[in-house]
Amino acid sequence: MAITKNGSTFTGLTAGLFDVKWTSASFAIAASTHGILVVSIGVWTAGGIANPTVVGVKWGGSGGTALTKVTSQVYDPAGTAVEEASIWYLVAPIAQTSTLYVDFGATYVNEIAVAATVWDGAAQTTPFSGASSFNSGWTNSWSVTVSSATSSLVIDAIIDGGAALTCSQTQDANISNTNTKVGQSNKAGAPSVVMNWTSANTHGVMVAASLAPYVDASHINIALAVGGS
């Protein structure tokens, strides 16, 4: 079963937040078939605030259903973490209009930008693999190589220090905040997939992982029982 976007997409951001939690505006998730909600998050803190960490994400507000973290990476230039990119997911999300709730633990975050997409035809048990990341000081290009497979889909998230972002993959989001830019993109799976972003010379961090397709186990069992493949 091919992985396809089901049309449910959301982007949201807040600057001047300085809080330990964030709730998005309301948005709708449509009914999906073997669906998965994928959320890319970029956060930024001003200098002197250590270890920005997204410790939890929920769909359905603060009392909603918890998402699972795929991967995260921090850009830490001099012992004080400044930017963090992370990817989270929820299989079989409930079709409803609600909010995303993001918990930063004890860390006060100044800016957040979020991109959420829903995909049909995704694996429901172990959807993500091959996570990879890259962080850098001043540069104008980011590149991550992900181990994937045909019929899979590679999804990434990037946050940089404020320069406009471009990429050769299919963009799902490109969000401009006061001091940061956040992007999410996707690319068809293969044994090895390279994800690239470029911008003016700035600093930032990027993460990516491979999303596996849904496989109907009953069809496999029937084929094996009759000697097929």
Structural shape: globular
Tell me about the largest β-sheet.
Answer: 6 strands, antiparallel
Would you list the SSEs in sequence order as H and E? Answer: EEEEEEEEEEEEEEEEEH
The helix tally amounts to 1
Integer tally of domains = 1
Question: Into which percent range does the helicity of residues fall?
Answer: under 10%
Indicate the topology:
Layout: E1 4-14, E2 21-23, E3 27-28, E4 36-44, E5 56-59, E6 65-66, E7 68-75, E8 83-91, E9 97-98, E10 100-103, E11 111-120, E12 128-147, E13 153-160, E14 166-167, E15 170-176, E16 181-188, E17 192-211, H1 217-225
Antiparallel strand pairs: 1-11, 2-10, 3-9, 4-8, 4-11, 5-6, 5-10, 7-8, 12-17, 13-16, 13-17, 14-17, 15-16
Could you give a short description of this structure?
The chain is mostly beta strands and 229 residues long. Helices cover 4% and strands 56% of the residues.
Architecture overview:
- The radius of gyration is 18 Å and the shape is globular.
- The two termini are 16 Å apart.
- With 229 residues, the chain is mainly β.
- The strands form 4 sheets. Strands 12, 13, 14, 15, 16 and 17 form a 6-stranded antiparallel β-sheet that branches. The protein has a 5-stranded antiparallel β-sheet with strand order 1-11-4-8-7, with no helix packed on it. Strands 2-10-5-6 form a 4-stranded antiparallel β-sheet, with no helix packed on it.
- It has one domain.
- The protein is built from 1 helix and 17 strands.
